[in-house]
Amino acid sequence: MFDPYAPQPQQSGNLPEFSVSDLSNALKRTVEDAFSFVRVRGEISGFKRASSGHLYLALKDDSAVLDAVCWRGAAAKLGVQPEDGMEVIVTGRLTTFPGRSKYQIVIDSMEVAGEGALLKLLEDRKKKLAGEGLFEADRKRPIPFCPT
């Protein structure tokens, strides 16, 4: 895509010459224009919840990895508690960080990918809790008549 307002490259021989900043910013505009709203399916890897409330993770499949971030405001509205290994479908926009030549998806929403994935998540959690002995009969208490 040609941007008439972008700085024009220096002509040197047959190839135009860009500064690193000019090229990085042109790529940023191109990626953000072409992928301003996308849905991506992948498995969560390297999940981290920062003290600021932002979520950092990677989405991966069998042959690629996509870095992802979910800002605090959007993270508070997610209907899913992300975990490593969970297969999800996220909606957001692609952006680049020109200072490091990296791209990522900024997540607006997240959902578990399919019923099978949700059932597997519940079964895994049930196994974990059973391993901790939380379903043992001797741990059960009667429900009070009027709970406080």
Question: Would you write up a description of this structure?
Answer:
- The longest helix is centred in the last third of the chain and has 18 residues, at 114-131.
- The N and C termini lie far apart (64 Å).
- The protein is elongated.
- Helix content is 26%, strand content 35%.
- A hairpin with a 4-residue loop joins strand 4 (55-60) and strand 5.
- The protein has helices at 20-34, 72-76, 114-131, and strands at 10-12, 15-17, 38-49, 55-60, 65-70, 87-97, 102-112.
- It is α+β, with helices and mostly antiparallel strands.
Give me a quick take on this structure.
With 148 residues, the chain is α+β, with helices and mostly antiparallel strands. The protein has helices at 20-34, 72-76, 114-131, and strands at residues 10-12, 15-17, 38-49, 55-60, 65-70, 87-97, 102-112. The strands form two sheets. It has a five-stranded mixed barrel with strand order 3-4-5-7-6.
Secondary structure: elements and pairs:
Elements: E1 10-12, E2 15-17, H1 20-34, E3 38-49, E4 55-60, E5 65-70, H2 72-76, E6 87-97, E7 102-112, H3 114-131
Parallel strand pairs: 5-7
Antiparallel strand pairs: 1-2, 3-4, 3-6, 4-5, 6-7
Which percent band covers the strand fraction? 35-45%
Q: Can you count the helices?
A: 3
- Mean pLDDT value: 87
- CA-based gyration radius: 23 Å
Number of strands: 7
**Structural class label:** alpha+beta
* Bulk shape: elongated
Q: Please trace the helix and strand order, writing H or E for each element.
A: EEHEEEHEEH
**Portion of residues within helices:** 25-40%
